[in-house]
Design brief:
By secondary structure, this protein is α+β, with helices and mostly antiparallel strands. It folds into four domains: 4-92, Uridine Diphospho-n-acetylenolpyruvylglucosamine Reductase, domain 2 (2-Layer Sandwich); 99-217, Uridine Diphospho-n-acetylenolpyruvylglucosamine Reductase, domain 3 (2-Layer Sandwich); 221-336, 2-Layer Sandwich (Alpha-Beta Plaits); 343-442, Alpha-Beta Plaits (2-Layer Sandwich), CATH 3.30.70. It has helices spanning 4-14, 23-26, 50-63, 117-125, 143-148, 156-159, 195-198, 232-246, 258-267, 293-309, 322-333, 335-342, 357-371, 402-420, 436-442, 445-458, and strands at 19-20, 43-45, 67-70, 89-92, 99-103, 108-112, 129-130, 166-172, 178-181, 207-214, 216-217, 221-229, 250-257, 281-289, 315-318, 345-346, 349-351, 376-382, 387-393.
Length: 470
């Protein structure tokens, strides 16, 4: 039920232009990008400063009103969607999009949480620096959401996850206090690293309002290789060769099956078959450096020549231009949209020890075929860091609601197999609402108990993003 007295006080804190209560105004903020989740709220608040965020949170804490932080709404687990309570306040930081500082001596960026990731990457590129975090949704996702989910992306094999790029954080805690941890120091051994608790917490411990990030040299020299491989073990052998010969220059190592390419060719415009023959699977490798292009290309061609000689790949193409480089990446990047256009499906964002991926693909495939031989695994992902998107499309001709009946059972098949190999049920998308039950099932009970105790310490009133993770 809407509390008019509370809303009036909230309006006084942030101004009438920053709060919305009419049903038609708040409706777009109540569902997730995939259309899987929808909730309720009494208001949407769009503060313009950390002071306003703190004022809003303080008032909500006093009134015990639940807060749902919202970024770019590009998450896939319902982590930014409110639950069924009509008391919720959705708090969006989209008006907080200032770049506070770019330091090209210390190589750091300080930016507010509402900044669009792609805008940040372009801004630092103009200063001849690189922000390595790169996602398919980078032109709509926001920095605060990236940190709150510890986002991954295509460059993790070289630069690591989001948390490895973070030097400092500013955040508003559930009682309205501001955590002033926005430091750009590379070394600070003064006790617990509290910022790491907020990274990946999905807004359940507080609201990140700004962050200080590491910057790297801008890699203007890039070469992409698209290779056809006949099996996952061959892809693993190719990964070992490229890693040994190219070291830190390997920036991405992506794997996808022939079924992924078939979907893209059927559903996407401007894409053509990569090779004259259809192959079982494909690998896309990106190498990047600050050296001249001739040297990087010579290294790339030498390594791929060795791979062909050893039979690690059946065919390969090296990009000759930026246009060709982008075209190779498009084949990989269009997979998710192509699968969505194909119809209903279930997604599994999992991680495994890299060496276990080939065995997992065999055993998981056997389990899925045993369940139903016509289910189509659509498997792709960041092979170099162990992150697979093990998605399942319904059998041809099956009804649209096929996964409403079979989705949970199939997910159990996949996640049981992930657990058997010592993997994780969430690699880069978080838990949100989607994986909440699986989280309690597959996570170690001691870890869950400690996490609950941390949650209780930070948020004793339980107002921060209720229903997420736990």
């Amino acid at each position: 039920m809407t509390d008019t007295s509370f809303l009036q006080r909230l309006t006084e804190k942030v101004g009438p232009g920053a709060i919305f209560t009419a049903p038609h105004d708040i409706a777009p903020w109540l569902s997730d990008w995939r259309g899987l989740y929808a909730g309720h709220a009494q208001a949407v608040v769009r503060p313009a400063s950390t002071v306003e965020v703190a004022a809003c949170v303080s008032l909500c804490a006093e009134a015990r009103v639940p807060i749902v932080p919202r970024g770019g709404n590009t998450g896939l687990c319902g982590g930014a969607t409110p639950d069924a309570s009509s008391a919720n306040v959705v708090l969006s930081l989209d008006r907080m999009h200032a770049i506070r500082n770019i330091d090209i001596i210390g190589n750091t960026l300080v930016a507010e949480a509402g900044c669009i990731l792609g805008n940040l990457r372009r801004a630092v590129a103009d200063e001849h620096r690189l922000l390595p975090l790169s996602l398919a949704a980078e032109d709509s996702c926001q920095l605060g959401g990236n940190l709150s989910t510890n986002a991954g992306g295509v460059n993790v094999v070289r630069y690591g996850m989001t948390r490895e790029l973070v030097l400092g954080i500013e955040a508003v805690l559930p009682n309205g206090e501001v955590f002033n941890g926005l430091r750009t120091l590379r070394k600070d051994n003064t006790g617990y690293d509290l910022k790491q608790l907020l990274i990946g917490a999905e807004g359940t411990l507080g609201i990140i309002t700004a962050a200080a990030l590491r910057l790297l040299p801008r890699n203007d020299v890039r070469v992409v290789v698209l290779a056809a491989v006949e099996s996952a073990p061959r892809a693993l052998d190719l990964f070992k060769l490229v890693f040994e010969q190219c070291g830190h220059r390997m920036q991405a190592f992506e794997f996808f099956t022939a079924e992924c390419v078939d979907l893209v060719l059927a559903q996407s415009d401007g894409v053509r078959a990569p090779f004259p023959m259809r192959h079982a699977s494909y690998v896309l490798v990106e190498l990047a450096d600050t050296v001249d292009e001739t040297a990087l290309r010579a290294l790339t061609e030498d390594v791929i020549g060795t791979a062909l000689e050893r039979g690690l790949c059946a065919d390969a193409a090296v990009s000759e231009s930026i246009a060709q480089l982008n075209s190779m990446w498009k084949l990989r990047e269009e997979i998710s949209e192509a699968q969505r256009a194909d119809g209903t499906h279930v997604k599994h964002d999992v991680s495994l020890p890299v060496a276990s991926i080939p065995a997992f693909l065999v055993s998981a495939g056997e389990r899925i075929r045993k369940y139903h031989p016509a289910i189509r695994p659509i498997v792709f992902g960041h092979f170099g860091d162990g992150n697979l998107h093990y998605n399942l499309s319904r059998p041809f001709g099956a009804p649209d609601d096929y996964f409403a009946q079979h989705g949970e059972a199939l997910t159990a098949e996949v996640l049981d197999e992930v657990a058997r190999y010592g993997g994780s049920i969430s690699a880069e998308h978080g838990i949100g609402q989607l994986k909440r039950d699986y989280f309690s099932q597959y996570k170690d009970p001691l870890e869950i108990r400690l996490m609950r105790e941390v949650k209780q310490l930070f948020d004793p009133r339980g107002i921060m993003n209720p229903g997420k993770i736990f």
